[in-house]
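User: For a benchmark we're assembling, each entry needs the component sequences followed by a predicted structure for the full assembly. Here are entry 17's components. Please fill in the structure.
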Amino acid sequence: MAFTTKASIASFGGKLLKLTHVSSSTGTDMAVNVFLPPQALTTPPQKVPVLIFLSGLTCSPENCSEKGFLQHAAARRGLAIVYPDTSPKGIDIAGAKDTYDFGEAASFYIDATQPPYAGIYNMETYLTAELPAALFGDAELGAWLDPARVSITGHSMGGHGALTLYLKNPGKYASVSAFAPISNPTRCPWGEKAFAGYLGDDRDEWKKHDATELLAGWVGRDLKALIDVGTGDNFYKQGQLLPENFEAAAEKAGVTGYEVRYQKDYDHSYYFISTFSDDHVEHAAKYLGL
Amino acid sequence: MAFTTKASIASFGGKLLKLTHVSSSTGTDMAVNVFLPPQALTTPPQKVPVLIFLSGLTCSPENCSEKGFLQHAAARRGLAIVYPDTSPKGIDIAGAKDTYDFGEAASFYIDATQPPYAGIYNMETYLTAELPAALFGDAELGAWLDPARVSITGHSMGGHGALTLYLKNPGKYASVSAFAPISNPTRCPWGEKAFAGYLGDDRDEWKKHDATELLAGWVGRDLKALIDVGTGDNFYKQGQLLPENFEAAAEKAGVTGYEVRYQKDYDHSYYFISTFSDDHVEHAAKYLGL
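Assistant: Structure for entry 17:
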């Protein structure tokens, strides 16, 4: 296949593949983990729906594969989980490794327009075009993954990624969910720093990549969205997440079919994700026809 | 309480407490994580049964708390999980930090008799006497933890710990289970190195701390044991685990009530543990009257 298999690990009756491939979008090697549930690993292979999980700041595909517990429900319901990489890595860009909330640790899943990131940090193109084409078109992986049934979820920066890619691409994903998403990045410090660095100073450009802003112009009505936020999450308390803004924008836009749950005392960690990952897999399964 | 609370983290409807206390057995600070299920956190508090999880080489209480997912079934069934520390740490002993399979990374849960470990590496005393007394006698924790209903489990070196502490202390634990346990340490490189270092050269002394050897003199008949081993586990293939020796000894001793499951393709990692942790919690729950 076009991917190099670094490891194949038995997990919950299925297997987790740790893969890498060369990305033309970024010009770098990109890692991606794919969990195949037992329902796919039949003879002949069976195509199963796919849930994409976008990770948060500082993460790699490894963190949620190990600590998110999505495989538990995915194995029961027969979903594959795809854990993409979080940014281009292994290239020398000034400043890209200096902070936890910008550069290699924090692509924000957009296509950068500003030097030195433009032409390399093309994560939106990578996630919406190159990676799906590579996975679904692969001679081996394509036998297990159904390109017609894909949903998306993510955590923190990855929650921002999931919500924005969903809103920007009507019909591409069957549903969306998010754990503690950065819901209104144009109005929080993390988002302001990232968008200024990747997109420049024009705040109107930033709005094209902000889930709360995108709601006003969204063509659909039924959002098919589940969002969980922990009330003990320090980043929520610091105003980095702003889910209330997303809720207000959804109400103003007349959007329905979404649930934002404030989970008492939960923090921003994988302890929070693992507690509610069954629910998020079930949410996706419902819209993926399982 | 006698413990210092380093963190209290919401998890699966309950909470995970990260605690430390000063141990008189070891003369050091010891960490211990305690997961309290929602069933305990009522008003007034409810005493719930306890499952002790002993970790493997190089681990701390953190690894399994984050990646083992015992909390999932424990929250459903109403068990507390206690994740003890794996060795005395923070003291300067020559050689104790040099290798991954001896010293700080690998106490083997015994009381050392050889210098420089004697008098400090008293893990058996710590686990069977001091830690339970501290937990159950604590004004706060004691309201949640039932001293009359305790089972034990563990992984790799912790599987050895669980099996040997169970066999040495009839009636102390309601049941035992193990993930990929070092089942016959007197006959594998890990065990030989550890026992020589902690116990000296007398191999008859070693046998007192070997689950396979202990079976011959065990007073019970119904072992109430569940053991899982992955057939893709490199340490199993290298002869570090030797579960077949344990099975043969159990058969020879006329012991019943145990199941050793060889799980196809599973490795030695937390991917393996998390896949089967529901089963091990259910095994304990059955014998703890839940």
